[in-house]
């Protein structure tokens, strides 16, 4: 049994966030196969009273609740707690911000090993200041230099680490679970949002500028000028992340329109139904890591249309056996986005066929069981190295005593 602490996430269970979904899926599976797993949580996302989720231990610690200091102050306290109170074997940092501290356990404990996962190029996100962007980039550097092993969730992030920091990051992608076939609440839930089956476009995202929701809104407004597409709606699922000004901007763009629906954060049956009965999933982001929302849409057999940034293109390009499993448009180009959506609205058979191909693709290459196995293998390799060093030191001590 390995004692593992996850540090950097808001916590689990959390209603939105790719990092949080990643931690939830991974930590629960690691606990189920016998490891002692701790996830550090932050309020208000996870109440202090929550002490356990499935078989995972939850520990709530305070933080400075500001955009720039929330994650790093919480992570700082969590490192000390994990080492001196919990005496963990492995600290697993989540994200480049918290990975700024990947050197700290090395100073505090010779026993504790460090793993750091690079989830995205956060320094490209527009919500951060110049100083914060440079600190986030430094976090990626520290993850590659100081962690016993770094993980990148996409090939492009792996290549970035190698090219810029000469640090070899192990590629382990995000994963997805294939949903069950039926949902008895479908009609009721769709009616609550005033939606019809297969008559809406869907995006599930935090409302932050680099996710490009404004491009999709502008494209959709252009599409609706054609009466042929009058029945279609655009559904935007998600909420802010210290980005209330951007949310206000989006609401201004859509004022007076009943065909653009903001649902806020949705989970469970509601989110299941919204994915299940959408016509097309659209992800117009300017920057990504490896989007779990895209993987989820693919797991429902939905065709996806994404901006052609490397991280998105990596998902839809498939492989030599499958060919492309999605569609793309030129990043930030509203005209191209509009054309591609119109083309796909006019090709329902193609949309259905590519969606089924996407589902089979993620079933094979992005399943959580395989991802858990590969992550656990990293933990065991690190500890094995540590054990070998202990054995070598013991043999050296015996030799010195005999001499």
What features would you describe in this structure?
Helix 1 packs across helix 14 and helix 7 packs across helix 12. The protein contains 14 helices and 14 strands. The protein has 403 residues and is of the alpha/beta class. Strand 7, helix 5 and strand 8 form a beta-alpha-beta unit. It folds into 2 domains: 202 residues, Rossmann fold; 180 residues, 3-Layer(aba) Sandwich (Rossmann fold). An 8-stranded mixed beta sheet has the order 3-4-2-1-5-6-7-8, with helices on both faces. It has a 6-stranded parallel beta sheet with strand order 11-10-9-12-13-14, with helices on both faces.
Describe the secondary structure blueprint for this structure.
Elements: E1 3-7, H1 18-32, E2 36-41, E3 52-53, E4 56-60, H2 70-85, E5 90-94, H3 104-108, E6 113-118, H4 130-146, E7 149-152, H5 155-165, E8 169-171, H6 186-192, E9 200-204, H7 213-223, E10 233-237, H8 244-253, E11 260-264, H9 268-276, E12 280-283, H10 292-299, E13 304-307, H11 310-316, E14 327-329, H12 334-345, H13 348-365, H14 368-402
Parallel strand pairs: 1-2, 1-5, 2-4, 5-6, 6-7, 7-8, 9-10, 9-12, 10-11, 12-13, 13-14
Antiparallel strand pairs: 3-4
